[in-house]
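quick one, two chains, predict together pls
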Amino acid sequence: MTGILKLAYKLLVNDKAKFTALLVGITFAVFLMIAMTSLFAGVLNRASATVINLGASIWVMDPSVQTVANTIGMPDYVLDATRSIRGVRYAVPVYSGSALVKLGDGAYQAVTVVGLDDTSLFGRPRLVEGKIEDIYGENAFIVVKDPEFPKLGNPRMGSEFEVNEHRGVIVGIATVASSGLFGVPTLYTTYERALSYIPNPRFTISYVLVEPKSPSEVSTIKQEMHALGYLALTKDEFMSKISAFYMFQTGLGMNLLIMTVMSFIVGLSISGQTFYTFVLENLEKFGALKAMGTRNRELVQMILFQASFTALTGYGLGIGLCALTIALAKLRLPDYAAMITFWNLGLAFVMVVIIAAVSSYFGVRKVLRIEPFDIFRG
Amino acid sequence: MPDKAITATAIVKSFGEGEAKTVALREVSLDAYFGEMLYIVGPSGSGKTTLLSVLSGILRPDSGSVSVEGADIWNLSSDQLADFRLHKIGFVFQDYHLFPRLTTSENVAIPLILKRQNWSQSIVEATKYLDIVGLKGRADLPPVKLSGGEQQRVAIARAIVGQPDIMIMDEPTASLDGDTGHAIVQFVKQNVLNDKRCILIVTHDNRISEFATRILKMQDGRLIGVEKGGNM
């Protein structure tokens, strides 16, 4: 650190009351911004849980589908048509729907049932107990051990229950990358069993999961499906579509965006005002430095350094505080959906840079206008 | 005859415009020499501080010129003028303008730090100058822990640590009691003034007139007389 920046650093941190007020302002703002956006990221991630967990490269669906939970059945010929496209390595059907489970104590519990292609079991979850081939057994289901798992009475291997008045038995316990948004447990079974256990309309394929022969075939597959009147989306596109739905068509995104903007404004107000006051209180000292021979650009460097140092320290503290809060919340609330992503961190960083820039802009203006002669005049 | 430190020629400076215009300096000319302690005295509003500011490269005059060691300082760019102040002038402000959040030695080291000298070396050198001004053992204290006279000495140490050719003191005794003010100016004359340095002091304290080499009297923006020191 050069001498002049060290001087700026000491002038800043040695004024403990002001420095603390500045840090609290920025830390609080960063905490709020990251808390809001991470909550939103968590919700969006859970909304796309099935897409993440099944992991297919391309999803074929009815064009009216808005979210992965909102399935619209497709006729069997769509699967055949998909398989006939030259660029398709393989295509499998998947079923996704809701059912009611009657537990041993007589209580009912809503569940999501995912029916995997009988031949390939494409999209199967990672088992922590049991063997995947047991899914072919009579009435077999695999249960996902996620925060919703206790709602099924913490089932064990061999636990029995009823699904729509059919007998069901747990043959495996699995983990998945992401839990669902709607607070219901998830059961995996075969596609055919899902169809036979759950009442369905005429068309039964929820999605066709496709693996292209090469990434360059994706556009061809999309075009051919479009010609058939269906929509083919890559995994990322489908997740973006789901995110867009929650952001722009449910009010959820707008409300969280408003909260994020409010936290930014709070942070900007507190930090900007405190930093400006700090500069005002030190204005005579900056004037004295100017009289002694400090160049204007050196004074600007000092103020930018002070603002940046405060902003980055507050940014780090805000991230730490938010991460700690989320970790503590997850200990108590397993369904708590917040997740800190690089996107959250990047957004908060940009906002903190804006706070530092605005705060220092007014300080710099004031310092550049001070005349050393005013110091002589007192 | 000693060398000229400063030559000011026909300095004019006014503030405000139209009916609110006030002329602070009216065709002021003077010479200041190395080895002298030059007082500028006069009533409030006579233009003393304005003159000091023009001579030290802080306030641009409306007309006239100021030469320091033969170079016209008001032909310099703003960066060059800042460098001129940093390397040639040592300031002792009326209210000292010490930094309360820094230690005494850090305050004194500021001109060296501004000259991009290493921080630790600057502190060591500043501590030596604190010894010179009689503040041995006070280096790590904040200025607020010092008395008014001690703070004045810190300000003097800060002004001379960069070894400037010209030292500017604005009302150095204004905030001090009579004895302390007298002792401070006596200290400056005995320990800071030398034949390679010129000291300009703005004051209206009669009690320190005995230390002046010459005394310039000002009134209404004009120099109205020059006297030899010791008789104010």
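The mean pLDDT of chain A is 89.
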